[in-house]
Structure prediction request, 676 residues.
Amino acid sequence: MTLHQVPGRLVTIADVAREAQVGESTVSRVLRGQGSYSKRAGERVLEAAARLGYVPNRLAGSLAGNADSVGSQLVGVVIPSLTNIVFPDLLRGLTGDLDTTGFQSVIGVSDYDPAREETLVESLLSWRPSALVLTGLEHTALTVTRLRAAGIRIVEMIDTDGPGLDIVVGFSNRAVGHASARHLIERGYRRIGYVGHDLSQDLRAAKRFAGFEAALREAGLSLHSQELVFDRSSAAVGRAALEALMARAPDTDAVYFSNDDMALGGYFGCLGRGWAVPGRVALFGCHALDITAAMPQPLSTMRTPRLEIGRAAARSLADGAPAGTIDLGFELCQGATA
Amino acid sequence: MTLHQVPGRLVTIADVAREAQVGESTVSRVLRGQGSYSKRAGERVLEAAARLGYVPNRLAGSLAGNADSVGSQLVGVVIPSLTNIVFPDLLRGLTGDLDTTGFQSVIGVSDYDPAREETLVESLLSWRPSALVLTGLEHTALTVTRLRAAGIRIVEMIDTDGPGLDIVVGFSNRAVGHASARHLIERGYRRIGYVGHDLSQDLRAAKRFAGFEAALREAGLSLHSQELVFDRSSAAVGRAALEALMARAPDTDAVYFSNDDMALGGYFGCLGRGWAVPGRVALFGCHALDITAAMPQPLSTMRTPRLEIGRAAARSLADGAPAGTIDLGFELCQGATA
DNA sequence: ATATAAATTGGCAGCGCTGCCAAAACATCA
DNA sequence: TGATGTTTTGGCAGCGCTGCCAATTTATAT
Prediction:
């Protein structure tokens, strides 16, 4: 068997029409189950299509069908990363619910770079998707202009702290940060540190941090120590950062991590050094990764509804939801590390 | 500002042509930087396109351009899951290298279900992608027929244990299993157990298991105990399974997990019960997730080149590699748990 | 200045499909 | 039986773009 063996054209609707001895329009109607046609025509067409191995060409279909009727059945998705498990979870919810509605997702990964997002949006738009799903509320001016001009539905996921372009689905990162700080304060911690990755990149983490600091201030406290890392978030990085932080400010009694994977790394660091958690230092993460629930001491963290956000995004598009914000909230996971 | 405000048509190439006072073909040539055109024409077109906010319509472009020249610039991707971090890693390598070549990925998640894969392939094919990237070598007969008839490049990722349709990129799962068993045997373990998720679903895991058992047999051993789980692989599931296995066969001295996340869960279980690892029981995983390297005792596991597989898949398509298998191998991570 | 080669350009068919419309086939009623 | 309404059907334009080709402009050689 040879690849590329197909010499010329693939089977078209005209071939099926000839084979079934009906007109092209009839084939089109039967195959889409739209409009009226006789039972006999239906059978012949289906039979002929199967025999010929007809595969519809959706490029042609979307081009011909006026955008308003079906749209391209493509949905563009831009996420900042695939490394951070948060985003695959989002995707999972999104694609899972999207393809039950017959949509296909075209995805792009921006690497937390607004310029890259701009390029991706431009590129995705050229497929005339019926909707675009983005992450976060911050986009370049040009991206916003293009999005507006496209005249399609836009969903911005994850962050509800600010105005969106159309549909916004997520939770308040600020509130997550705030609630995390409140929890630590209520548990009696006072010399609280922060370990996070580059805040100028991950704007959601920055908002959590802002909420966190605000809660400290409201309680008459301030951040006791902090360690920022400029790598992509990972357990190894979290571990190193915690160790650096504790070396500089050994009396820190609790640490807030911008992400569970770093918190997990921090926890491993404590285990390795024989530090009691939370005796020596308390640890608090964010996102409630599955793994952290299986730990001997479950990590204290905040559950964010990632899968649900993806699902809600898909559903809002399918249902033609009105513009507006859908806040899915978050939930404290008490855990045993803070 | 209203969404859907665009009343009628979007800007087309004809609009740009009129604005720039050149012919449509010239616009097309300039915008694609193909063929020859004067400097002056180039400037006018670019300027007009920018002023009008022209967004090319790739549906039309791909339809018009004969498949052989550019193809649709879409690549269809089918992965079994987004939960298992293995697949986002694959995607990351793939999309990262793909969009530097101007390709966009349309993805589908099959949930380890061949029938679902069949549907997804059918659906993806209708976008006339220039290539399809699948996971694994096993597909339904109809899928294979369709793939062959499509006349496009096919990449099958991850598994090299068998014949592929066109390009195969991955490693030998059988060999991974075999090498894992060899390692345990060489380290002196004799009463070896297995914890894995449903082997009828995850065919790669099944092949690893087969290689593992073969190595045991060759050494005159047999599997001492095993515990299969039918949930999706996770740390919690791994922990529970290990505990169940140790309850049934307390003298098991080493356990092979089909996946690192389960191994990690198992490790947590041991920590929780105060069992020495590897004193009480040794643990060996698969895939070398990032996290496991940050553990106080790094997990003993097998590093599989997931990112590289995605990259190699993208590259082989971009370069028009010949049909064949690219084996990227794997690497033992000695770790400290086995 | 003229002939010839090279670069640039626009027109138009056609990619495969769907929407529209008028024609044909069938059903219903007086 | 003919008239009227209803369902089914096929033809054809056109979605926005690119490939091809012939026409035009420009550069080079004689």
About this structure: Residues 1-7 of chain A have pLDDT under 50 and may be disordered. Chain A is about 45% helix and 15% strand. Residues 9, 12-14, 24-25, 28-29, 32, 56-66, 69-70 of chain A lie near DNA strand C (CB under 10 Å from a C1'). Chain A touches chain B through 72 residues (CB under 8 Å).
